[in-house]
Each structure stands twice: as C-alpha cells, then as structure tokens.
Amino acid sequence: MKELINWLADPIRSFPIFTVLFILMMKYYRVVGTKKFAWGFTIISIPVVLWFATDPNFWLIITWPDNIPISILIVAILFFTWFSLYRCAVNDQRLDDGLCPEEALPENREKVWCWPNLVYTELFAIIAGTIFLIVWAIIFKAPLEEPANPTWAPNPAKAPWYFLGLQEMLVYFDPWMAGVVLPGLVVVGLIAIPYIDTNPKGNGYFTYKERPIAIWGFMFGWLVLWIYLIIVGTFLRGPNWTFYGPFEYWDFHKVVSEYNVNLSEFLWVKWLNTSMPSNLIMREMLGIVLTGLYMFVLPPLIAASNFGKSIIEKTGQIRYYIYITLLLVMMSLPIKMVLRWLFSLKYIIALPEWELNL
Amino acid sequence: MSEVKQHLNRREFFSYLSVAWITFSAACAGLLTLAFRFSYPNVNFEPEMEFLAGTPSDYEEGVDERWKNGFGVWMVKQEGKLVALSNICTHLGCIPTWMPAELKFKCPCHGSGYYMNGINFEGPAPRPLERYKIGMTPEGKIKVDKTKIYRYEKGQWDHPNSFIQV
Ligand code: FES
Fold this sequence. Notes:
The structure holds two protein chains of two kinds.
Chain A: H1 2-9, H2 11-27, H3 29-32, H4 35-53, H5 56-63, H6 68-96, H7 106-109, H8 114-139, H9 164-170, H10 175-196, H11 212-235, H12 263-271, H13 280-283, H14 285-304, H15 306-315, H16 317-343, E1 350-351, E2 356-357
Antiparallel strand pairs in A: 1-2
Helix pairs in contact in A: 2-11, 9-10, 9-11, 10-16, 14-15, 14-16, 15-16
Chain B: H1 10-38, E1 50-52, E2 62-64, H2 68-71, E3 73-78, E4 81-86, E5 97-99, E6 104-106, E7 113-115, E8 120-122, E9 131-136, E10 142-150, E11 164-165
Antiparallel strand pairs in B: 1-10, 2-3, 3-4, 4-9, 4-11, 5-6, 6-7, 7-8, 9-10
C-alpha cells in the first residue's frame, strides 16, 4: 500500500491525478458543495491522515518546523475551497429556482456600524494573531545555522514555503522564464483581472454557473499550478531535489537516471540523423516555429471557435487577446511539465549562447 | 550704546539662517555617509579571485575538492588535462555537490546534474559548468584566475588557457 502511494505520488502520476480530481470537483460542485460531503470527507480523512502519520518518514516530513505552516495551509485551503463551492451550490440552486442569491436577501443586506461590529472583530483578530505567533515562536525555534558561505549550499536547498511552487517550476524552465517572466506575468495578470473581467455577474455573491470560465481559469492556476507545486516542493522533494515519496526515507544516494534532451537535438540528431547546424537560429528553428505558432497563431484560431467568439462578444477584441495570451502563458507550464515527463525534453528553444531558453 | 537692538534685521537673519542651514546639511551629509559606510561589511569573506593551487603532481585523476570551500573551484584531472571547474550551477547559481559514487555533480536546488567534465545532462541546467583560466607560474606552480571564464557552448574549452596539459 505504502509502495503504491509512493509510486502514485511521483509528479508524473500525481499531476494527472490531481488534475482529474480538480476537474471532477469543479464538475460536480453541487455534490462536493454540500455539508454531507464535507462531513463524510472529514470523517474518512481523519483515520487516513492518522495512518499516514504512523509512518516515521512521513511524520518527519510534516513535523519539520518549516513544513508545519504548509500543513495548516492545506487544511485551510481545503476548507475554503469547499466553503466557496458550498455557497456557489446554494446560490445556483436558488437562481435555478428563480430566487435571488442568498447575499441579496433583505436580512443580509442590512447595514451595521463599523464601530463596534467591525473594529471589535479586528481587535480580536489582532490579539489572536499575536498570541498565535508568540506561541509559535516559543514552540518552534528558528534554527541558527552556520555563517553564510558562498561556496557551499545546504542539500536540499529549499526556498521559503511560499516560493516552493516557483522553485518547483524552475525544474522545468530556464531561470529567466520561471524566475522573472512567469512570476511577473502572474502578478501583472492578477492586477489586470478587474480590467479584463468587466462582467458584473457574481459581484457580491457566490455563483458558479454564471461565471464558469473565470472560475475555471483562476482555480486551475491557483490549485493545480500553485498549491499542488508547493505541496510537491515541500513534501516530495528531498536531497538533490530528487523526488521522494511521502513514505520514503530521504536517502542521499538515491539515483534517478534522467537524461534530458533539447528539442533541437531531437530534430537534428534523432529524427534527421545529421549533425546540428552551426547557425544558431537554424538549429533552433523547430522550437522557434512551434513557440510562434503557440503564441501568435493559436489566439486567432481560438477566436474563431465558439469559445473565443462568445468571449469576444462579451468583452471585445483587446480584452480577449490579453486574456488568451495570459491563459496560454499559464498553460505553457503544464505543457512543459508533461513534455519533460514524457520525452525528457529539456528546452524547446535552447540558446544558452544568448542566455535564452524556453 | 543707546541703541540696543531688540530685533534682528533682515541681513542678520539671513546670515544666521545660512549658518544654521549649512550646519544642518553637513550633519545630514555626515549621517548619510556613515549610513552608506555601514552598508559595507567590515570584513570581506569573498573568495580571492586568484590563487596558487600547488603543483600538477598534487592531483590525482578525477575530481579534487580541496579548493572548493575556500575558492569555489574543483580541480578536475581527466585524459591528461587539468582544469579548474567553477562550482556555480549554470541554472540559477546554486552550489552543486560532487557525488563520488555516482561520478557526477548534482545541484541541490532544482536537481541539475553534470558529468565529471562539467557537461550538463539532467535537470534544467541550460549549459555546462564554466572553466576558469588556469596556467603555470615560472616557479612551476599552478595559478587559477577566476576573473576569466571559458564557456563550452561558445567553443572556448579549446582555448590553451582553459586547461593545462599534465
Ligand atoms: S540552480 Fe542548480 S539546478 Fe537550479
């Protein structure tokens, strides 16, 4: 059983599994978003988690002081995801029945004073937060390590937990892409949401069926591409950034043989059986063409499809193109990950001479 | 003597003002200089950029780690050539570990792997490790100069200064 879970947890398998679970959850949100489901899930998961925790290796990983916030975070995310789906399901049912959403009921629209209603809550939250942090600081001591040494790195060298998703992303990309371009676009994209998404549906109330595209796009990026990668980076990566299953001992000498090949080598050496051309652009032609197709030909193609047409109709050309570009950039991450797993593909465009790799 | 001035006239006021203002600016400038100085370390632990690395006969075939902690250099002797390999991962600049059993360098940050000669083969590293300039002094000592690097993908590993024949 433990062997099986270790085997399944490898990103090659757990990523598709996680994606499928995500799709199921979104599709059957009216089932997931019920109190019955939540209780059932909790009752089933408690013995499972306890059983997991009896394994010494798993226990070691989750009680590692750095990792405790992530365990808390996972529980919180599970709860809030369920909670929003629950509210969506309730509201959508009401909308189906021709009623107004719950939030629009007269008793929920009633206004209260900021003082004392809000300020008291805030005061309480501040005190609770402070106490929590103090207790935390007393229980889990920050380790005092040796002085910084520019010629030595800890193994595994892990970023702070909120960056572990990025660090996991860096396994598949050049530092320029995963360290600068993609995070930059994530930030820009999040800032741009209110300008791209001018649809007033869902303002001030939970709903799923009125906003499927927005919800799918956001939740996929958030849960599958960010949270999942943080979990992998935290719990499943050990020395040398090698994959270790949740019940696996972190053996420093675990060898995973892996040989990554650039797309240009695939093309020239494997498929055409010649040597690589010396002209750089020529050498990377296939990758450049594919990237060009993906970024510049795909958007107009999608625009001609029903999906694209409906978006353009609602938002207009410019908003559509910004949206679709951001979406394509986001999807490049899972695409690249899958290509790496299936074909050991290193870079689609590999121009280390110019510090440019995709 | 009869006229005891009660008030400053305009001219005096301005001279006082300029003295005060100059003092104030000088104090601020001094403070800033101190703050600026403070941001530089008193002792610098940066490895030296140039060092003498013994004689060629000190090295056995394979990877030698004796200069790694002090200077960030692996001495690799292979096929009659001795090279000074940089220990900075070409992906994002972590410090890989030499794994003698597996005969490879492995980076702890994102898992890049390099062969003994520095060529990358696994993980995200886009190019091989860099070589530093290496040469002999007239006294027969090896001298490594880290200010000059030689990159494989640019075809610089054939350069006579990028290795010494042993
Ligand atoms: S820094 Fe070495 S693999 Fe990323």
